[in-house]
Amino acid sequence: MNLPELFAERAGDYRAGMHHCTAAELPTVLAGLLAGASRVVLPAGIAEPWLTGLTVATLPDGTPPLTAADLDEAGLSVLTGCAVAIAETGTIVLDAGPGQGRRLLTLVPDHHVCVVRDEQIVADVPDMIAALPEPTRPLTMISGPSATSDIELNRVEGVHGPRRLDIVCVHP
């Protein structure tokens, strides 16, 4: 199994929505995933071609940045890229670089859509550290939507983060 396939399988195990497309198909896939949002928050550095076809209002996380209350609005989604993704664990890694935004941006809204290019997927954690452009930046590692279990092992999603995580894997 190659790295993109392993990543998709593992991320799917964590109940992330997995979507596959080419770069040419990406705007259409994103438009479909975000069609039900009231608004979509965009961090600085999002690639403009990604936004072609979006029919919902976009909200840049500008100056001043959106507050936690702003980001907790019902129906709000966030669209980001990632720094790297780990195949072995199905984890996306954000380092607040261009197109990723700050931590609050990806941990508060109910729906997070993250774009991962095949060349960003590495095998394991040591490879992830080596692949980071600036390894001293604070990292946010996300493996599926927010989830917790009570003492009876009943799974509850979205208690302390997005209830829904959609990952779009972009293949050449």
Automatic annotation (TrEMBL):
It holds the Pfam family LUD_dom. Residues 79-169 form the LUD domain. It comes from the Bacteria. InterPro entries: FTHF_cligase-like_sf, LUD_dom, NagB/RpiA_transferase-like. PANTHER family: LACTATE UTILIZATION PROTEIN C. This is LUD domain-containing protein. The lineage of its organism: Bacteria, Bacillati, Actinomycetota, Actinomycetes, Micromonosporales.
